[in-house]
UniProtKB/TrEMBL annotation:
<protein>
    <submittedName>
        <fullName>Tyrosine-protein phosphatase</fullName>
    </submittedName>
</protein>
<dbReference type="InterPro" id="IPR029021">
    <property type="entry name" value="Prot-tyrosine_phosphatase-like"/>
</dbReference>
<dbReference type="InterPro" id="IPR026893">
    <property type="entry name" value="Tyr/Ser_Pase_IphP-type"/>
</dbReference>
<dbReference type="Pfam" id="PF13350">
    <property type="entry name" value="Y_phosphatase3"/>
</dbReference>
<comment type="similarity">
    <text>Belongs to the protein-tyrosine phosphatase family.</text>
</comment>
<dbReference type="InterPro" id="IPR016130">
    <property type="entry name" value="Tyr_Pase_AS"/>
</dbReference>
Amino acid sequence: MNERVRTFEGIHNFRDYGGYAARDGRLRSGILWRSGQHGAATPDDLAGVAQIGLSTVIDLRGDSERQSMPCLRPELFDAVVLFAAGETVGSELAPHEEAGRGIATAAEAKEAMTRLYVNMPYREVLVRSLSLYFDALATREGPSLLHCLAGKDRTGLAAALLHRLLGVHEDDVMADYLLTNVAGNQARRIAAAGDSIRERYGDQITDDAIVTLMGVDADYLHAATRSIEERHGSVEQYAEAVLSVDAARREALRQRLIE
C-alpha cells in the first residue's frame, strides 16, 4: 500500500487511490490522486506535483480554509480547480478541528469524530462539492487531484464513495481509507495540527487525543455508511438521490476510470 504514497515535505497524505480491482476490471493507476492542502508545499514538492500533469483539482475545503491557507501551484499550472462556495463542514473549521471542541481525551476525540461522520454525507456545501467531484471524473480527461485540509475525512469519504460505486471490494475501500494513518511523515503532520488545535481549544487536550483527531478509524467510515444506508438503502441510491450520480453517470465513470 505504501507504494501508492508520494512523500513530500509540505504536502501530506499525497497518494494514488486508483489501481484497485473493481466490478468490471481495475481502476486506472496514475490518474486518481488525493492529498491534504498544498499551502506549505516546497519548490521540490511543486515540481513533483507538476510531473503528474494534473488536469483537474477538486478542492473540498470551505471558503475560510481556502482564504486562510491558499494552495501553492507549480509553475505553468493550468489545471481546472473546482470547489463549491461556502463552508463544507458547516463551520470555518476542518472536521478534525471541529471535533476538537470541548474534548480532552482520545476516547472523547473518537466519539466526536464518529458523530461528525454521521452527518458528513449530508452537509449542504460538501454535497455540492461531491457533485462537482463526480461530474469532473465522469466528463474530464487526464489526472485529477482530490483534496481537503488534511486529506483524510472529506477526501476519505469522497474516495470511498467512488470506490464503492465502481465495485471496489470493501476490504480495499477500507484499506485505502486507513492508509492515512501511515502515509507520509505522520509525526510532522500531527505535531503541526496539535499546535493549531491546542491554540484554539486549550492545553487540556492530550497527545493521544490529538493523534486520534488527526488519524482515521474504521468506525468513522462505518458511521457514514450506516447513515447513508439508513436513509437511502445503499450508496448507489444515495449517490443518485443526493449527488445526481445516476446510472448513466456511473457508466461514464466506469468508462473513464476502469481498464
